[in-house]
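HUMAN: Mind sharing a backbone?

ASSISTANT:
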Amino acid sequence: MNSAKIRSLKLDTFDQALVQSIPIRYSGHDSNVRLVPVGKWILEEEGLIRDIATWRQRNREFFLDQSESTPLKTLNYFRSISIPRDDRIFFIVYLADGAIGHIAFSSVSDKSAELDNLMRGEAGGPATLMTLVEKSILSWAFKTLNLEKISLRILSKNPFALAIHTELGFSERMRYPLRIIESESSCVLEICNADERSTPVELIE
């Protein structure tokens, strides 16, 4: 069962997680880049939580939920959603000893999963680093989780990620119109009927 495999990756300490990390290879050689699975260890990493919140804030236009990103919201996401749920796994991209991005899976079952949260937060490594990250995590998921299908959803205004996904074999199946739902504390894009759309941005599946 993939739920058990996912649980086994959510460890209490960073050193334990590092043992389970996924190495990234480029030019045919091992590199100093690793994908470290997130578990309870991240709840004590205030600097990393702050960095992830900053990356999300800087790039929130590329997400359906475009609300302000804060360290507290990020901490609560890991504590209440990412870590306890057995159908989600989040990886931090480490270059040497520094975190530079992340990638994740949601809706993981025994046959399928959704790729999400591809983010390059900091410079470093080869220009194609995030392509290598996605290629490595897809290979890991097919081999380790024995998945038959991996899907994703992405906003049409995100050409960087779209190019990576296309290069690695994803193809567009459908586009959905979106409308903006705003309140004093949030801004969210949601799927709607064509005559209700309030933005030219579309959700690609």
